[in-house]
Amino acid sequence: MKDLFGKAIFDFYTKNSPEDIITETSISEEDEMSVEYLFRNYNEMPKIEQKALQLAKGKILDVGCGAGSHALSLQNERSLDITAIDISEKAIETCLLRGIKNAKVENILDFEGEKFDTILLLMNGTGIFGQLKNCNTYLTKLKSLLNPGGQILIDSSDIIYMFDEDEDGGKWIPSENDYYGELVFNISYKGEKEEPFDWLYLDYNTLQNAAISNGFNCELVLEGDHYDYLAKLSI
C-alpha cells in the first residue's frame, strides 16, 4: 500500500498543499472527499459518533483511528486512557503531532499484550473486516482484547438502498459478491492511485447474527438519518 490516505492526512495537518481524496467503489462513481472532515471536533461529528464517545469508558482502544479526532476528544475533553491504532504510518505520525499520547502503527489482528474496557470502531467500523467471511476472525480477536464487562462500539450502514430495484420491488444485486455490503474501494490522491482494497458495510441484522455466533450480546444503540447505525457488543 502507498498509504495515500495517510499522506493526505499528514499533508493537511502540516499544510503541505493538501488536496481532496478521490474515492471510487465497485458500485459508485468517483467522489471527492475533503480531508478536513477527518479533523472535525466533537461538536462537528455525526450523532452516532458523539453517542459512541459518550458511551466510551475505562481503558479505550480506538481501532482505525485515522487522523485521531475521536481519540483526541476522549483524551483531552474527558481525560480518558486511550490507545489509538491504525495501519497507516502517516496517520499515526499525524496523531502524535496532534498530541495523542499513545498512538501506534498496528494491525488489530496483530495487536497483543493489553486488554480494554471499550474498543471503538467508527466511521464504518466494520469496513476493516473486508469481506463477510472475515467477520468471525475479527470478532474473535476483538473479544480477546476485552476486559470482563467490556464493550465494543461499532458503526456501519445498510447499503441496500444503493442497488436498483427490479419490477417486483426486489433489489438487483451483482452475483459475484457473497454479500451485497462487500465493496472494493479505490483511492487516488495527488495523481497517485492506491492499491484497491476490500471494505465491508454490514446491515445490523447480519452484524447481530455474527456477534451472537461469537458469544456476544448485541444491542442497537442508535440509528442515523441515512441507513447507518451504532451497535454495542458485550460479553
TrEMBL record:
<protein>
    <submittedName>
        <fullName>Class I SAM-dependent methyltransferase</fullName>
        <ecNumber>2.1.-.-</ecNumber>
    </submittedName>
</protein>
<keyword id="KW-0489">Methyltransferase</keyword>
<dbReference type="GO" id="GO:0032259">
    <property type="term" value="P:methylation"/>
</dbReference>
<dbReference type="InterPro" id="IPR029063">
    <property type="entry name" value="SAM-dependent_MTases_sf"/>
</dbReference>
<dbReference type="GO" id="GO:0008168">
    <property type="term" value="F:methyltransferase activity"/>
</dbReference>
<dbReference type="InterPro" id="IPR025714">
    <property type="entry name" value="Methyltranfer_dom"/>
</dbReference>
<keyword id="KW-0808">Transferase</keyword>
<dbReference type="Pfam" id="PF13847">
    <property type="entry name" value="Methyltransf_31"/>
</dbReference>
<feature type="domain" description="Methyltransferase">
    <location>
        <begin position="58"/>
        <end position="188"/>
    </location>
</feature>
